[in-house]
Write a structure and sequence with these properties.
This protein is of the alpha/beta class and 230 residues long. The chain has two domains: 100 residues, Elongation Factor Tu (Ef-tu), domain 3, CATH 2.40.30.10; 124 residues, Rossmann fold (3-Layer(aba) Sandwich), CATH 3.40.50.80. 21% of the residues lie in helices and 35% in strands. It has six helices and 13 strands. It has a seven-stranded parallel beta sheet, sandwiched between helices. A six-stranded antiparallel beta sheet has the order 5-4-7-2-3-6, covered by helices on one side. Strand 10, helix 4 and strand 11 form a beta-alpha-beta unit. Helix 5 packs parallel to helix 6. The radius of gyration is 17 Å and the shape is globular. The site of flavin-adenine dinucleotide has 23 residues, from strand 5, strand 6 and helix 1.
């Protein structure tokens, strides 16, 4: 297994100003926000921005494509959270400061098949990557409930194999939709044939740790790229 840690931040520390344009709730737990795009601000699909607000910093992956006129994010509403609550409640027109783009969680073409694995809002960088023309790969999205499967219509049309993996819903309710019952690690263990892959993992650190162990045991010679949200 080759492990590459992409979270070396800071490619450009200039502070930019942006304005909240719109908010759209995707479920009770997550929302999308659209921000004005300062000029010049260039980024690659999969990169993040870092907000600077009241003396603290928070990173968010861009879901918009590099050529889109605005910047968009997919944010989990953390009930007792500091900044996600600010983003969830700010009025359109509110200005924010950020730096970026940051990070290296970008698609690296190779001869190995790419397996994209996300939990929850860890789906965010794959929205941008999918929108930038990368297709034909497998995407596993691990969530607790069906309503957390944001962007599924978009992914179905782009990815060769889009597999929602749902852990907290009875299997009988998932069957009519063809969804996998279980965690992303269960799907990988049961369904991926022995080969070398490029794994792109984004979301909770527990998922990333568990997939890394599995790759180590079952898919030697694979590459792993990670983006840890929480
Ligand atoms: C490189 C990078 C990219 C990221 N991209 C995204 C993104 O695209 N979308 C996104 O929603 N988040 C993303 N995050 C996480 C984000 O930066 C914040 O950490 C998150 O929004 C919580 O911030 P907060 O200020 O609201 O909560 P905090 O005030 O930092 O935390 C409050 C409490 O909630 C807990 N908590 C923090 N985060 C979570 C969580 N995700 N789930 C459950 N409990 C939590 C903390 O342990 C703490 O107890 C990213 C993080 C990194 C490092």
């Amino acid at each position: 297994m080759s492990f590459e840690q992409p979270q070396v931040p800071v490619t450009d520390d200039a502070i930019q100003t942006t304005e909240l344009l719109k908010r759209r709730w995707l479920s009770e737990k997550a929302f999308e926000i659209e921000l004005s795009r300062p000029a010049p601000f260039e980024f690659s699909a999969g990169q993040t921005i870092r907000f600077i607000h009241d003396g603290f910093e928070r990173y968010y992956s861009l879901i918009s494509g590099p050529d889109d006129p605005t910047l968009s994010l997919c944010v989990r509403f953390v009930e007792k959270g500091t900044f996600s609550v600010v983003l969830a409640t700010a009025e359109p027109g509110t200005q924010f400061q950020f730096t970026g783009p940051h990070g290296y969680f970008t698609f690296k073409p190779s001869r190995r098949q790419a397996i994209f694995v996300a939990t929850g809002t860890g789906i965010a960088p794959f929205v941008s990557i999918a929108g930038s023309g990368v297709g034909g790969f497998m995407l596993l999205h691990g969530v607790s409930y069906m309503e957390d499967l944001y962007y599924q219509d978009q992914f179905r049309s782009i990815f060769d194999k889009y597999v929602p993996c749902i852990s907290n819903t009875p299997a009988k309710d998932l069957q009519p939709h063809g969804f996998f019952h279980g965690r992303v690690t269960d799907y990988i263990a049961r369904n991926l044939s022995a080969a070398q892959y490029d794994f792109y993992l984004c979301g909770r650190q527990e998922m990333i740790r568990d997939v890394m162990h599995l790759v180590d045991e079952r898919f030697p010679g694979s590459f792993i790229y990670t983006e840890v949200f929480f």
